[in-house]
Structure formats: C-alpha cells, structure tokens
Amino acid sequence: MTAPPAVPLIDAELIRSSLTDPESFAELFDRYSPMIFRYVSRRLGPEAAEDVVGDTFLAAFGARHRYDLSRPDARPWLFGIATKLVARHHRSEAARYRALRRSPVDGPVEGPAERVADGLTAAAVRPALAAALAALPRRDRDVLLLVAWGDLAYEQVAHALGVPVGTGRSRLHRARRKVRAALGDSNPMHEEE
User: Fold this and answer.
1) Looking at residues 66-82, what average pLDDT do you find?
2) 45: which residues sit within 8 A by CB, 6+ positions away?
3) Which residues contact residue 33 at a Cβ distance below 8 angstroms, ignoring those fewer than 6 apart?
C-alpha cells in the first residue's frame, strides 16, 4: 500500500519550520523564485534578475524570524523585498524602458490568429508603453507592475509595499490612467470592434 501524497505546507508553516530547520526554506525558493524572476526580469532584464532574485531570498532568509506567521501566503512579502531591491536598480530599469521604446518591433508570432493579432498589437504599442512606464513615478509603477506582472491582488500589493490598501488602489488607478492616456486613452488589447 502506498502512502498518500504529502500535502504541501503553507508558506507560514515553512517559514516557522525554517527557524529550526533552515533547509526547509528552500521550498519557498522552489515555489516562488520562477515567479519573482519573471517579474524582476521584465523590470530589469534577465541578467540583473538573477542577482535580484538571489538577493531577495537571501534577505528573506535573514528576516524570516520577523515574518508575520499569521499570513499564510509569503508572496506579498517576497515581492515586497524584490520590489525594494528593484528600486536600487532604478537607473537600469529606466534605461531598459528607454531601450524598449527605441527597439524595433518584432515580427508576428506563429500560432492561432488571435494570438498573432494580439502579438502584433502589443508589439506596435511597446515603444509607447515603455515610455509611459518610464514616465511613471516609481511608487505608481511598482503598484502597476506588481498587479500586472506579479499577479498580486490589491491587498497583497499593499502588504508587499507596506501601504494601506486604499493608497495602493489610488496609485494603481493613477498609473493605469496615465498609461491609458499615453496609449491614446484606449487599451489596444481590448479594442471594441
């Protein structure tokens, strides 16, 4: 008879366990490093992202004794650490957006017609989007990108950045409004026909 599959521990339990068994913290790295890498890579590029992800988990490991164990999901905490580290690279992030604004538009992608059309539309607005992101104040850009690229909910973004939920919502609203205005007051990915 085989044993039932082990139920994965929630993040807070892993962090609590890592206080006496430091190697158990590796499970958090395995769970979330790909997600955080994608987020940071989009902001700074893949070269810097590897270092920032490593630094994020190193900082988290060092601060695990201060983690609020009443919070079962560690993603907001980890994304908050990563976002603070990205802020230290703000010059590289701004340079990345300027480079994207100047870069040529890629050709169409292979695949279903909708994906090709979406890809062409997205590629066409990439320079304007990059310029709009570069023009946003860092605190507004952080909120927008944690929602868009980090896939965090309002409450998680607020926790990650250490701000009230209302502040996070207003920053997100302001950032969306500015980006939408920079793109001609429309969302090209959801155009009405």
Assistant:
1) 95
2) 92, 96
3) 53, 57
